[in-house]
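A quick word before the example. In earlier lectures we treated sequence and structure as two separate objects. From today on, think of them as two lines of the same record. Here is Cytochrome P450 written that way.
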Amino acid sequence: MGIFLIIFAFTGFSLLCLLSTFSLLILKIYCGKSIKDPSYPPVNGTVFHQLLYFNRLYDYQTEVAKKQPTFRLLGPAQSEIYTTDIRNIEHVLKTKFDKYSKGEYNQDILEDLFGQGIFAVDGDKWRQQRKLASFEFSTRVLRDFSCAVFRTNAAKLVKVVSGFAVAGRVLDMQDMLMRCTLDSIFKVGFGVDLNCLDGSSGEGTEFMKAFDESNALVYWRYVDPFWKLKRISNIGSEASLKKNIKVIDDFVHNLISTKRNLLAMQQDSNEKEDILSRFLLASEKDPDKMDDQYLRDIILNFMIAGKDTSASTLSWFFYLLCKNPLIQEKIEQEVRDVTGALTETLRLYPAVPSDGRCAESDDILPDGYRVKKGDGVYYMAYAMGRMPSIWGENAEEFRPERWLENGIFQPESPFKFIAFHAGPRICLGKDFAYRQMKIVSAALLRFLRFKLTDDTRDVTYRTMFTLHMDGGLHVCAISRKF
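And the structure line, produced from the sequence above:
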């Protein structure tokens, strides 16, 4: 055992030395160019410094942003600019929308998991998917169908959690919510009863785990300078990612094949309520562009939007209610307050904690800082929710009433409350997500109360694209007496 510890320590030390040397080299390259130029954002290190803070990355970004609302990290080829300035965010996401894209750097990192899906592409492919999705999300058929599915699965969730309450057993609330929302998105999105919540679908559970692991492993690429070498060599995190991607691909391609066969047998049926069926019908008009691989990418992009946004937000919502039992009781008595509480949860724990774009040409941000062509410009939703300059001195407090005026919900500018993105790429599923979260939270709070198994332990996040809790949310559920 001792020899393995020595090897591990030596390897870790060597890697740290290599990264330090690499960081110094980057600084040396930039010295004399723009590193000391006040017209560019102040430098706070290199992109590889994020490795040192990876497990608490968003809190590290928050600490820096409180001192420097716009700062940059230096990379081998370009800078990464981070901002919490609302003016900059509107500039990048709306005013100069056509001058900023996902960029080749981001697409290269994302492609293995998200492929050519809506979150990873620009141009015609993005517009095509956006147009189809925009139409689907606006239809009454989808709205009515989704509400029925959400109510059915919320009732199933209440039954499962009530079983834990009666038995006096601890449950992982995040896991339950992930299963519930996955069942819902598969039914609404793909017309499939996955049955993850009741545990009867081994394939569904395996798929969910593979997808969540892939989410984290792909995000790791942003701070791993050797990920391409590891992918070629099929070692370490990239070997794990390859295995998980195969599980995902096998599952999704089987789903597409099954769905095609079902549609072929239901040609005369008008009951094509799910999104995949509608995309499959659209693909028949243009089979060369919308092949099975393209449909696979569309499915995974819709899935992360439908499952992770709702499940992660609901998990943090119940965590905050456990930390604030008086608010929990108030919401149970006055269900209309749930919108404010859910929005306040998203302010503090946004489903996507950080996102950004790539500059297609040199630019000047509204705060006066310059951006070079190829630089990434990232807005930090997690940090923004904690900025006193944006939300006041009580910014870090959970206060649902900040969204209510005379008991009526008052929305904020999407560039200030950035949880659902903003501009032309604003989240199409915002209302869809709120419907699901309201139905699930109201059903659970109607019949149950929740408390943490350990009030002294602060729940933390796992650093990945979406803000999952690290280690789950372990709670005790208590049945309400009527």
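Notice the following. The radius of gyration is 23 Å. We will return to this example when we discuss secondary structure assignment.
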